[in-house]
Amino acid sequence: MFSLAFKNILFYKGRSIATVILTFLSTLLFIVFVSMQDGSHKAMLANSLKIYTGAIEIYHTDYRDVGGNEYLIKEVKSITEKLSHIEGVEAFTARYETFGLLSTDDNSAASMIAGIEPEKEKSISSIASSLIEGEFLSQSSENCLYMGSGLVQRLGMKLGDEVAFVGGASDNSFAADIFKLCGVFKTGLFEFDLSTSFVSRSYFDTLMLSQNKASYITVKVDDLENVDAINNKIIEVLGDENLESLTWKTLMKTMVEAMEVDNIFGYISLGMFLIVIFFVIMIYGFINVSSRIKEFGVLRCIGLGAENIFNLLFYEILILSSFAIFLAAPIAAAICYYYSLNPIVIEGIAEMYKDYGIISDEIPFDFSLFTIAWNVLLIYALNFLSILYPYFYINSFEPIEASRHV
Predict the structure, then answer these.
(1) Closest-CA residue to 295 (of 274, 281, 312)
(2) Half-sphere exposure of residue 104: CA atoms within 13 angstroms, side-chain side
(3) Which contiguous run of DSSP H or E holds residue 179?
């Protein structure tokens, strides 16, 4: 059957070429599209985690829902000591966040002010690398303020200017100080840059009476794919019902849902494309089979059964699909690999979609052999399904009737 199928492929050149071209294009486009979609989502997630949110964050159980100084994490040092012994935890830092009023001579604005550990922050977030003017904080920065570019513009400040801060300390007492603008950052996240400032914890803890306390502890893991397993280890090691450890899947639930919706619509669009390709291939196959009814009738008259006819059609589509896929898959893989290293750049896309968390003009691809493999298998499956209707159509004729068909 295999040799007869090969001869039929060479004889019916038009149908063979059309099938190969359609399979080649569908394989190439399918792999490239999925790679671009997965790469964009991974980049969006990585950029968002890299800016400020951690892969895992540890809170007092009521802090996120109720808030307030009553639900700060106490005994931070003992918790971080436990984290240092957990495999998969790459880095961690304790942050103390509060809200207050910043005022200059002419302007005022509410701001989230976070006390951070500057050196640890460099390895966890991109706050330091987002510097556009001045300098980043250090352990000895004292009353230096590191402020978002949007907030700087709102307050009408420049480097070296002083700004008054009024807020509440960790014990609910009154806190006030004069900060000096030492650095300006721009992450690309519009709301974040418009409302956030940072102070070194070594100074801020004295002002806010927050020594050994934290709003939360953020954790960076060595592999995001293993974040759930690492989080389970953290929960086990902490062993405190008053603490909760949450992964980015919960912390960034809105983004996760948005990516899932985008995935759904992306696969719906791609599915419609594949359905069109499937029916085109099936129609070509049906037309080819319709013109060969007499041939199949003669084959059945000389002893070939329905199983042999199926095998003949199967081998024909197998040879054509394999030729097209083995040609398309390496090309698609090369494209995905190249653009995973050298992302496509569309100037201005980050500015256009900054309100949606897009902070880069780059559109990276995701190179994954597993993704390529299941894409190839799906194309194979669609091509094999395309022979079913032609096969049943052939068997609707009796052998003698088919051999006399004109």
Answers:
(1) 312
(2) 16
(3) strand 174-185
